[in-house]
Amino acid sequence: MSTQTDKDFINSVDIDVGGTFTDLVLTLDGERHIAKCPTTPHDLSIGFLNAIEAGGDKVGLTVEELLPKIDIIRYSTTVALNRLLQRQGPRIGLLTTEGHEDAILIGRGAQWTDGQRVAERRNIAVQNKPHPLIDRSLILGVRERVDSAGQVVRPLDEEDVRRKLRSLMDRGARAIVVSLLWSFMNPVHERRVREIIREEYKEYHIGFVPVVLSSSVVSKIGEYERTMTAVLDAYLQRSMQNDIGATWDKLRDKGYRGAFLMIHNSGGSADIFKTPASRTFNGGPVAGLMGSAYFANKLGFKNVIAGDVGGTSFDVALVVESSVRNYTFRPVIDKWMVNVTMMQTISVGAGGGSIASVEGGRLSVGPRSAGSMPGPVCYDLGGTEPTVTDADVVLGYINPDSYYGGRMPLSKSKAEKAIREKVAQPLGIETIEAAALIRRVVDENMAGAIKREVHMRGYHPEDFVLFAFGGAGPTHMSGLRGDVPKAVMFPAAPVFCAMGSSIMDIVHMYEQSRRMVFMEPLSERLVVDPQAFNSTVEALIEKAQADLVAEGLDVADAQYTLELDMLYGGQVNLKRASSPRLRIDGPEDAQAIYDAFEREFSESFSPLVVNKPGGVFLDNFVLRVTVPTWKPEVPEFPLQGADPAAAQIGERRAYWPETSAWADTPVYQFEQLQPGNRVVGPAVIEAELTTIVVPPGQRFDIDKHGLGILEAINPPPPRKRVTSQVAVAA
């Protein structure tokens, strides 16, 4: 595979499979086309091909005519998490170092809170540790030992391995995880165990089983997290193989011969058949974050909140000072802490399909979702519980006749009935008031999530711009933006995560734990061993180049960047800092690396906690390898007049909580609005795949790039900033 062609563009298909809709961005001959179709949870490959067919319809091509023209397909999905939540994995056997069989069952001290919402954590009386993915009877220890320096102190007992392996198979294991102590320092025993498994159960045997080595999945310290990462990969491997394999087979049958990449939660993409399952978790929101960073840079925004309102969840991520280098080092996937470095995003159960319910006289919206089947009540597919989308229909914001481009007529009467019976009557209010309350609650949930995330990172919402995307993002951006002064809506907002993947480079990340003293305590001398430092980086580069060659990529196109996990002595605040050098060839290189660490540490924590007398320790190397791909430019258009009358397509009665009244509200067609047009609320703007709601007191402008900008007509005065000298206006 090569990303270089004789064209000045790349034809690509980018698909994001969500809980409700499957989104597509088709880039063909330098032009973009978007499409959506319902997700098919029973067989994701069906929805995948349906999305490509919908994209082909946009350009007048059948799937068989379109696919041979495509150079690359990128795919993000939540299939791994869905299978995990449904506990549909095989019985797994675990071989670990003798004496450490109970490590993953013991977990960390707070394991019982992993993956729990705040409200659930507070109810301590009902909390229990999660039910293990592996039965204790399927965890066996083998006789071996490697120490923390990678030295073999107890040779591997191969006969013991064979006995334990046969015992696991007799007990029903259908996948084997091998996680031995300190194997990331020296994987010789894990690799030999895999060879023994292959000798005992060959590929042509019915008893052939997948084998996952923890040292291959994660080369980092942390026995529990490293083992759980390998367990999750083994648990999800077969189901993902079936889903993705079926998709790949259908693509090949239809004539596709290009590359097939999976979006990683580390911010890049890689060959789909060389992607561990744990790297795909949260791939869609990460694609949205990377797309936000790219367009923010092009548009001149330094601080951006990426807000993705889908059918099931609301995902939030930040671009700060044009950087997305905010990581979660030990994320929790479902109930399990893993050792996979992920771009930092948060997710709350709020979206168009979020279910509204009344318990104890109190309305809650989410986290339960109606999904795509049966979906909201207005879909008329068997749903009985009212959702946010039902409320938007009842309020008059969503047109039942033009939803999803008119291909999915909605039932307003059934939505009204469900809200009346399930919300209005239990609360003793009118149906329209109940619908408005549902919308207000979900908006406040999302605005609260933004405020918490921004403030907990040490920033102020007033200093950011909101990129509102996802199918329901433009519909709710007026309420969810909270204290953020400006919200931006892209024409491709309904499929923005797929849009984000279309501009993502091919990126691999390689990590290696290796503890080194970088700065000597007390003396503050830089004493890092250049040979050890350079050999570690060189080994990572060699591994990266081998993978690039195997994927058919040109090694000469690769760009290498190094990040280092470092901390001051006597502290627990580890900081991942960007290294300005790949090698240390002299004192000036070591000084440059330390200076970069101190600067980023000070920005993240405070200059007051810089502790040079405590020394500096290097814990982990992270090599990021990037192969750039073609990216489109952001177009500019001449500005027209402010009057949007030419785009008005009618009026519709809508209820506005701001005035507590119905109003005959002008309705505009988004695609007919011109740069320079200004729509003053109250108004509704209909696009092919979403609806923009402009409440009273707000305005919606089309800028020179064709983007929609939502702001208050009379914004509040600027926040006062407190400096070390005086308070000045922002």
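^ that was protein a. below is b, sequence first then the tokens
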Amino acid sequence: MIKHPWFRSLSMRILAAGVPFFVSQMSAPAAYQILAEDVQPASAMNPMNSAAAGQETSANPPVEKPMPPPPNSPVMMVDEVVPPAVPKETPSSPMPTSPMPDKAGAQASDAKQPTKQPEPKPKSADQPAEPKKTEPAKQPAPPKPAPSKPAPPKPAPTKPAAPPKQVDKPFLSPTGVDLKKGAIRVEDAGPDFALQGEYMAWDWSAEKGWHWLGIQVVATGDGTFEAIAYPGGLPGNGVASRATMPIGTPQIKADSELLPTLWQGSGKATPEGLMITFNEPSEGRKFVTKDGQTGQLFRGDGALISQAVKWSRKSQREGARPPANAVILFDGTDNGQLKNLKISPEGLMQIGSETKGAWQNFHFHAEFKTPFMPFAKGQARANSGFYLQKRYEVQVLDSFGLIPQFNDAAAIYRNKMPDLNMSFPPLSWQTYDIQFQAPLFDEQGTKIQNGRLTVWHNGIVVQNHVSLENKTGGGSKEGPEALPILFQNHGNPVEFRNLWLAELSPQVLLASTTQPVPACLPVVATPHACVSTTPCCPPAKHRRPARCRR
């Protein structure tokens, strides 16, 4: 160790000057340590950003930190954080440390880190001052909505206006008659009427061999058709009811055991003709007609079975003459027996009339013709009726080719359906023969016995001595007094003729003394018909006549 006084004095001087320097270096802030080592000015980093983000300082180079949480992160801040002011100097940090940087900070983070620049010289007082960069204005917090006043009560919802009623466009026949309202003459009925009607053909099955097949084709408007086929013949000509229909049954299905066996089918007319496809039997049946007079019956596979021909039936009671004691209600002229009588130019009675007389027990004969209304359905299809004593209605309706229901033709309206649907096609004359027995009442006006009713439709019994439990819904109240007969006006152009009435004693209304039912009705067939004129009595040999085999 050098003990020279001069060296000792120099050492003490050096030591006295160096200790404060090292102490000042050890106590300097960390941020300034990094800048000192990087030879960068202290203004290159904004300490406010570091403090706002909680940035830790170190003597080592800055380490890239993870990105802030996504907006939907559970740790997302509830209150919006306003970013700090942008410093005048370009930041040296490679990515922002604030969770919500502004555009300037985002652009700076994407840019490359600038090269190190020496500390700028201080500006003299003679140099003009640089314009200060304006800081982005802080977004004012959205004003809090004023407390809303209670909404006024909503007005009661008004019912929407009903849509305008659609006008039903007419469907005109070639002669200009609107078929949606109905045609009362054959020449106004149009081409569909020529195809509609009843046909007869021979059918064959392994169980029955050769047998009659009666086909009823019904026009339903604009070239569409429905049909029913009866193995054994037409109703009343080879086909009879199986049983008496129950009272009060509103509807019945096609496969009911009460009905005769029948098939249902449908089809559409084309310029080549009409083809009806039936859903039964298992191998199928197709009926084809081109002219509405003749036709052919095929199996489902197209094999021809037999020829068919149209039949025009006529009731054996049509034109029936009244007995000597009968009251002639209408014979084509006004004889003073009817109120509100309207007669057509053809001498036919229109709907809406009423008898002037009243009767208790009687046999009533009427002939009527329903209009051709292919577009109408159900109760809108040629509706009228006979209100006996203005209490009990026997329905008049175009029910041709339908399964009988409790409001169809010859039904005791909404009380009992007919046992068999004996309706002829529209524009055909049909007959009702009605025997009515009034109910019995005691001296106090209490009913002690129901009325009775028997109806022949086109000569066939369809209501056999039926007990009348009560009046029809719209009829007059039951009572011991006699009332007139009303011909119901339902707005459809039904026409009547040959109306007469004969008074009867109650004894003749017993079931055992009712008029016998003919075994087989005479039928008026078209010329050159290839079927027997008595189809209920088929020939022994099931062969077609020679003229049909040619």
